[in-house]
Structure formats: C-alpha cells, structure tokens
Amino acid sequence: MQIPNWSKNYLKANRVQLITDAVKKAENKTSGEIVPMIVRRSSTVGHVPVIFMTLVIAVFFGLDVPHWQHEFLGEHWAWYLADVVLLLGLSTLFSKFNWMQRLFTSRPDQADQVSMRAEVEFYESGIKNTKDATGVLLFVSLMERRAVILADKAINDKVSKETWQNVCDLLINGIKQGNLGLAFAAAIEKCGEILTPHFPIQPDDINELKDQLIIKE
Fold first, then answer.
1. How far out from the chain centre does Cα 162 lie?
2. I want to staple 49 with a disulfide (CB 3.0 to 4.6 A). Which of 30, 95, 131, 203 is the partner?
3. Tens-digit pLDDT string for the chain (217 aa)
4. pTM above 0.90?
C-alpha cells in the first residue's frame, strides 16, 4: 500500500502489513470485525491563516517595522508590496503545520470534530452493516493527536466505553512517538482480547470487512 507523504512522520510503509497481520490474528479468535483507520485531520482549519495573519500584522505594526524600513531603506511603494507578500507567505506557510492548527483550534472543538468524523466514517465505511452488529472502528486523527473507538450495538451492549480507553491510549502514544504502526498492532491485539470472551470465533464465521488499514485525508 502506498502511504501519503503527510502520514510518513507517523507511519512507516513497512508497518502497514504489520497492521493487516494484527487484524487477521485478532479476528482468528473473535467474530468481531476490526477496522483500523487513519485520517489526516478531522477539524476545519480555514480560520488558522486568518488568525495567524492577524497576529503577525499586530506584531508587525507593534514593532513599528514600517518606520524602520523608512529609516534604513527609504520610502517606496515596492516595500509595502513586499511586506504584504511576506506576511501572506508566512501566514500560509505556518498555517500548514499541525502544531499551528492545534494551537489555534480549541481542544473542545478538536474533540467534537474528531468524534463527528469518526461517526461519519463508521457509517460510510460499512462498519455498521455487519450481520451481527459486531464491527468496531479504531479511528486516529493525526492533526489533533486523538483516537476514537466506535463499536456497533452488539459490542456496546457487552463492552463499556471505559474499557476502550487503554486502546485509545496506545494509539495516542503511537502518534506522539511517531510509531503508529506498532501502536496499531498493539491496540488491535488488545481489541481482540476484549472482544474474544464476548464474541468468540464461530465455525461459520465470515470475514465481512477487509483486513487492512484505511488511510484518508
């Protein structure tokens, strides 16, 4: 599988097969359907360049840069044009960094938007359509450094939401440490351990969802 450039700081290409193998191994013991997913971001970030540009302009005039330009470079319309281009360029450049997007997006907004994106993906990826309602999504949103575990009704009836916190912690640590492949493998193994006592593999079990990592923007 080709992995996009934006994910390479977190996921090594040779770790993708490790994730697939972990899903297959876990599903050999449980009838649950485990789906790992990574998205680039869940939050809207169109406001980030505007906020950053406003701050840069405030600093620019707060330090009285136009005055120093006039003193040392003389007065010319080209300097004002260069200032505009520079400020726009800085705003555009820095607004692309994940840390900058996190800085200017409130934590409650990040949490809400990651949860909403996870719910959308849960339905759009067909995880909701398993025969016995035993699908579970391991969802990671990289920019926000957040993870969400969503399980279908049959699993929710037997496994509390609090039980999944250890799985989320494994994934979040993997994001922060830049070894998401290993983190996913460990999280999937833990997921299998949670599901197997409640949903052991059945003789007529059918693999309803693909055993592979899903990567989306």
1. 21
2. 95
3. 778 999 988 998 889 999 999 999 999 999 999 999 999 999 998 898 888 888 888 887 787 776 677 767 767 667 677 777 888 888 888 888 999 899 999 999 999 999 999 999 999 988 988 888 999 999 999 999 999 999 999 999 999 888 999 999 999 999 999 899 999 999 999 999 999 999 999 888 888 888 899 999 9
4. no
Side by side, the strands of the sheet bearing 135-141 are: 146-151, 135-141, 33-39, 214-216
Which residue stretches of 95-146 are H helix? 98-103, 107-124
Cα separation, 33 vs 129, in Å, equals 11
Total Cβ atoms within 10 A of residue 81: 10
- Name the DSSP class of 162: G
* Cβ neighbours, 10 Å, residue 46: 7
Apex CA 71: angle with CA 67 and CA 77, to 5°?
70
CB contact set of 204 (below 8 Å; sequence gap of 6+): none
Q: Which CATH architecture has domain 5-43+106-216?
A: Roll (3.10)
| Encoded amino acid at 206, one letter | I
Q: Rounded to the nearest 5 degrees, what angle is found at the Cα of 188, between the Cα atoms of 168 and 117?
A: 50
